[in-house]
Specification:
The chain is of the alpha+beta class and 337 residues long. The protein is globular. The chain starts with a strand and ends with a strand. The strands form 6 sheets. The chain has a 5-stranded antiparallel sheet. A 4-stranded mixed sheet has the order 1-2-5-3, with helices on one face. The mean pLDDT is 96. The chain has helices at 28-41, 92-101, 154-157, 197-203, 211-225, 246-255, 272-278, 308-326, and strands at residues 2-6, 18-25, 45-48, 54-55, 60-67, 72-76, 81-87, 126-127, 130-131, 136-143, 149-153, 174-184, 233-237, 243-245, 262-264, 267-269, 285-286, 289-291, 298-301, 335-336. The longest helix is centred in the last third of the chain and has 19 residues, at 308-326. It folds into 3 domains: 2-67, Uridine Diphospho-n-acetylenolpyruvylglucosamine Reductase, domain 2 (2-Layer Sandwich); 72-225, Uridine Diphospho-n-acetylenolpyruvylglucosamine Reductase, domain 3 (2-Layer Sandwich), CATH 3.30.465; 233-336, Uridine Diphospho-n-acetylenolpyruvylglucosamine Reductase, domain 1, CATH 3.90.78. The structure holds flavin-adenine dinucleotide. The site of flavin-adenine dinucleotide has 32 residues, from β3, β8, β12 and β13. Its cofactor is FAD.
Amino acid sequence: MQENFSLKPYNTFGVDAKARYFAEVHSTEELIEALNYSKTSTLPLLFLGGGSNMLLTKDFDGLAIQLNLKGIHEEFVSDNEVLVTAKAGENWHEFVMFCLNKNYGGLENLSLIPGNVGTSPMQNIGAYGTEIKDTFVSCTVLNLENLQLETFNLEQCRFGYRDSVFKQEGKGKYVILEVTFKLTRKDHKIKTEYGAITSELENLGIKNPTIQDISKAVINIRKSKLPDPKEIGNAGSFFKNPTILLTQFEELQQKFENIPGYTNGDFVKVPAGWLIEQCGWKGKQIENVASHKLQALVIINATGKATGQEIYDFSTKIIDSVKEKFGIELEREVNII
Ligand SMILES: Cc1cc2nc3c(=O)[nH]c(=O)nc-3n(C[C@H](O)[C@H](O)[C@H](O)COP(=O)(O)OP(=O)(O)OC[C@H]3O[C@@H](n4cnc5c(N)ncnc54)[C@H](O)[C@@H]3O)c2cc1C
């Protein structure tokens, strides 16, 4: 247990906020020990994975717990299927690479997403036409009220777009300890239709892609588009893509004929990056904070000196201008602490 501890290396925005107390745990027993300590002193809790989806707006007056539980377990369930369970502290991308090295298919489109396995169910991480809900079986959690272990299956997690029960009514009630996925061993489903995967495969001269090729293409595309948090502080997409009513979308089309949208029944998902760009934010910097020059949806700690509050205020300005121009209220994807 350490006191007055800087969380700068523990959040990818590189914000220098301090935690009153900090502990790193390597097992469920150590976690329970730390929780018992916080219960006796009634400290608020903050769980840390890779810190790639949080914005620390101020010092945290409580106990921050870095979840460093490690381990991967495999179980063949049929000729073509394997259950792979990884502990919360496993790095997500390294876990995906582990699966690809064993030729287990299903997670390849999710290559290079920062963060840890334990956080992946929080917002049902997704990219390039895949979400974890497509291969998720269950997760084991610790109930913070009674310190009992519970299992959540696919249905109980109520996954949605960048959403789950853990961001809604289960918020702050559970710590995810491990996650199990069902992956394929030979009849892999290759998904190339989303984003620039097809053209990147062409660039690589690949005609019949394997799951490993898909991963390679996704990695190349992501590296060319997104800032590396090791070089420039960011948390990926800061906002969710808003879903609006088809009627509202049609009204907007009268005024903005190029407005992009993906229709699903009576609703349309509009790319937040486009809306932000139209408001003139792409590449724009205010003091220490900017919108990324290649992707307006990504807010960056441009000078490395930004405070969490500055980044938050910058995001509020973006929300206000999108609301004013399009009448659409953007929702933050990043967890505000
Ligand atoms: C460059 C970049 C690109 C990104 N691209 C994508 C993308 O393509 N798709 C996507 O979905 N996301 C993307 N993200 C967002 C981020 O990588 C994911 O949301 C990731 O799952 C966050 O994991 P983490 O361990 O870093 O979470 P953290 O930031 O550590 O935690 C996020 C929240 O979950 C809580 N938490 C952490 N661990 C646990 C646990 N075990 N149990 C309960 N609560 C917990 C934290 O307290 C916090 O509120 C990107 C981020 C960056 C920086």
